[in-house]
Amino acid sequence: MLPNLLINCEADKIKPCQGVFMLSHSIQHAVNDTFAPAVARAGSESLDPVVAAKEIYTSLAECEATCVVFYCCTRYPLEQLSKELSRYFGDITVIGCTSAGEITPLGCRKHSISAFALSKQHFSVETALIENLATFSETDADELVSGMLENLRKRTVSAGPIEQHCFGLTLLDGLSIREELVINALNLSLQDIPLVGGSAGDDQHFVDTQVFCNGRFYSHAAVFMLVNTSCQFEVFSYHHLAPEEEKLVVTQTAPGQRVVEEFNAEPAALEYCRINGLKLEELSSEVFAMNPLAVQIGDQLYIRSIQQVNDDLSLTFFCAIDAGIVLTRMQSSGLHAHTAMVLNELQQRLGNIDLLIGFDCIHRRAEIDKLDLCESMSSLYRDHHMIGFNTYGEQINGLHLNHTFTGVAIGAPHRSQP
């Protein structure tokens, strides 16, 4: 079995199932001859924010939503998109972020917007904007999580201890270099409540990534949502990479910058090229995606993806990286086959997946494009009702990761037993 990280959180007492709305039609489960959607999915490929917002609203309208979450490319005029979404959804909680590729009801897409809605019958949410990532502390996290849980207890949709029926979701500025500190603080405060999320992208321009909350977009910020549900769910994180023999020792870094200046006491880019049999002029985002590195912690391998090569032959990474660590060269074991296995196992455990909230690394997307896997991966994502985006980093509990397929699989609410 390839290295993976898995957290299983299943509700043991579930409210009656009433239905699932997806795309332009409903998958419905009858209860007392009534129908109501539990979750909804939507997407639009129009870059006109007026048209896109209307198409998203129309597809989600049948769901009596307590919240809407969206992911959009940076080609949209973001201020106008904000106004249109606010106009359509009114008082409904709406959060989101910019992306580096989207996963819509049609599958893998670029230059589009994807979204999902959670119904108020089966979900209750509390949302917070964290504006100053630089000063966010464990004390701030304790106060924030405590207050949000207290509010959720007043309107829980689940039976039993609320902590057993909750998960946290984070969307963070993907260029903030603060993900590790923020999610670690939140994870400590959440204790046994699982935390999952993704770092916003900007279509690989690496200039400006933004999150959306309270009717507008923000840079250098994060959105944290705590979700209480009567549905079964499973939080997961996997990668499809296997280790090779070659190693690199990080011998010099630029502190706090995610920049490695030297491997093995040599210029980082040159050593990276050496172990991969590459020329310096060949280095690109696609090449980094196809030639990943990982650090071993215990018996797990965690990917440390490279963002770019710099003029001084240093390498900028997507995750924090320190001097002294040893990186292992990794190789794909088959992205499509591994993802199919993961999704099939999730479906076996949950019965049905009515919504899969996915955070799929931009380097996985690069491999999909390079190997012409877009149609086959899109088919997998469609079959498992996935909505998501290609990220600059993925979060699971207190870890900030790269090159993973991470998310939350949500099962259909169960019918009441007679």
TrEMBL record:
Superkingdom of this entry's organism?
Answer: Bacteria
Q: Where is the FIST C-domain domain?
A: 268-398
Which InterPro entries does this chain map to?
Answer: FIST_C, FIST_domain_N
User: What are the FIST domain coordinates in residue numbering?
Assistant: 64-267
Q: Which PANTHER family match?
A: BLR0328 PROTEIN
Q: What is this protein called?
A: Uncharacterized conserved protein, contains FIST_N domain
